[in-house]
Structure formats: structure tokens, C-alpha cells
């Protein structure tokens, strides 16, 4: 009696937008940020704390560079005035090669170059080459990229460079020595925050399609992003473009126009996370959507900034990299740190630094043990999901994000003890309540009771 419609969770924009919107060979704002992460890692002012002059030069140059990149992304721009920039580049293993200008005894050297480019891709390549940083991560996702000779900066040496592990940790790029697979280029995708029915989702897609027909140039700013239909418009803490379903086209248009400035804030947020990690012995700062309040990019940046300033005022003597491999999330609604069963630390943004140090050091090993158990539990969970899908011949079997792995494992084990032939061909969702969605998906709570699961 149910209408078995496959729920549309993620769609390519090519279904509703022009093909060139996705296949353009230029970089999007989000892709440019990721491509420039090794550059930001080498010149960020926070790494020049003992060298105020060089720090100030890099701060001013980064501001001018941000303006230049934003202007490149403005619809209808024709050309920009040549912009001369000077950066002091830190010595790292990826740029400490022979054939370059020597670094000073302080571990950095000055690099000067003039930007007179017309698109993001050529700008990113020029900056990286000027600072003798690799462009391999761009070439792997764009076959049209070729190293360009520079007039003002010396080219990189041809011999391969083995990069330090911290580079991959910071940039998010895959280490070729660990995973030789190339990273595929990111597509623009659509998703929904809620389990709305098919009719509701189709209406939202039609609205976005009309906007694409009316304002193509503005919509190009979202290439490479994840667009999520939700309750309010903006950019989420994880960098997703949020389209409020109650907003009119005017609000959506303004959001797409502002994306270049959001990308700049996203870049500064990632650097802020890295600085917090540096001050806390290498622990990774993460944002877990399923476990944290839904925050905009501005709200999350403000939260990180408050916590970072407290750390700077009260330096905690963690041994460098002693906490690598561990994770933490920041919360504004807690007053004492805690350790989650999944292995990450819950840290209040206003936590007392002294108490924080004691808590992390005493719980570090337990955190590592919890993270190991989490990985083992995830393997068991996936095996049980596959077994349940096969036994009951389900068309789709999934869980809501708020259902933990422990809860899902318990649910699957008890389901496998049942004989439920009427589930064949259905979409079954493990949730916290009983319901049937508009598109026919059947929801049952993870802690269902025998005799009540399906009637």
C-alpha cells in the first residue's frame, strides 16, 4: 500500500543547470581555497610571532591578495590592476630544495611577485610557482593544468620532493606514499537537511532551476560546493551553501553573490583551526554535524576565535605533536570538558586552560582507545547493515544521522533474529520514532520493542 519511491538525497546540478556550470575548466572559489592551503601554511602570520616585521608584511599582503581573489570572482569583471605582493615564506620540507634562493637563519625567505591574471586557476598556479610550492594537487584534478614558467620567480626543481606529514595533515591532500589514488574533482551536489517528501523536494529544485535560468553568472560561484536545502540561508560551519526553503529568490541571489567573501572566511577559519591544533599539541579540531548544533560559518568562526584568544593569553605547555591523532569539538553550551564515547573531546569555548590541560593529558589514552573501538564498531555496523539488507531484500536500509553506531548495531542484531518477509523491496530507515514518510520510506526507532516494530 506504500508508494516505493527512491528518495532523492543527492543530485548533480547538471539535472537543472547548464552543463558548463559543472564542466568549466576554471577553479571555483572553494577549490581555489583548497589549492592555496600549502601557500597559506607557509606564509600565515601566526607562524611569525617572533618576527613582527615579517608578520606585518604577510598580514598586509594576505589582505591585498584576498581582495584580488574576491574581485576575480565578481560577475562581469573585465580586468584588474597589476598587484605587487611580498611574502616571507617559511622553510618547509616541500620547498627546501636545491636550486632556490637560500633561506635566512630564521628559516624564511622573501618572495616578490606581481599578479596580473584574469582567472582563479592561473592566479593559484602563479602564486604556488612563485613560492616554489607544488602544483601536483591541482594537476591531479585538472588535466588541463600545466606548469607555467615564471619571469619573476624561479621554477621548482624537477626532482621529486618528499613532503612532511604535517603538510598533508594541514592541507587535507592525500599522501601519495600512503594512497596512490588521485583525488577526483569535486562536483556540485544537492542535498536536504530534512527528510522532505518528493513533492517538496521537486518544488525546491524547480525554484533553483528558475534562478539558474535568470542569473547564470552568479550561480557559477557555487561550482564545486555542496548546496543544502534547509531552514535558513547562508554558509554552514562545514562550508555547505545553505538555501532557506522559506526565502525568496532575492535572498538566494544575494547569497550566491556573497560566496567569494564566504570562501575567504572559510580560509581564515581553517587557519584558525590549525593554530588551535598547534597550541594544543597537534590535536585536530573537528566539527561533527550530527553531534553539534547547526552553526553558520560566521558563528563557528566566532566560537573558534574566542577559544583561540583564550589559549594565546594562557599558553598551555603541551609537547609539540604529542596529541596528534586525537580529535576535539568546541561547544558553547558546556562548562566542563568531557570525553565522548566515540573518542573525541568535548571542549567548552570558555574552558579554564589549566583544567583543560589536566583533563586532556589524563584522558588521552582513553580517547585513543575509544577511537579504536569506534573504528572497530563501524566495521561491525556496516557488516550488519549489509546482512540485514540481504536477509530482508530491502531496496534501501539506512539510519538517521542522530542514531549512533552502538544503537544501530543493537537494532540490526535484534532485527536479524526476526522473520519479516513483508519488508521485501522497501526502504527502511532506523530513527527514533515510528513513521511513514511521504515518499514511502518506513521509519522505526532503533530501540523498537518486539511485536511493535512493524504492524
UniProtKB/TrEMBL annotation:
Domain DUF4461 per the UniProt entry, residue ranges: 190-449
InterPro entries in the record: DUF4460, DUF4461, TCAIM
Stretches assigned to the DUF4460 domain: 24-133
One of the Pfam families matching this protein, by short name: DUF4460
Superkingdom, natural source: Eukaryota
Assigned GO CC terms: mitochondrion
Protein name as annotated: T cell activation inhibitor, mitochondrial
Species the sequence originates in: Ailuropoda melanoleuca (Giant panda)
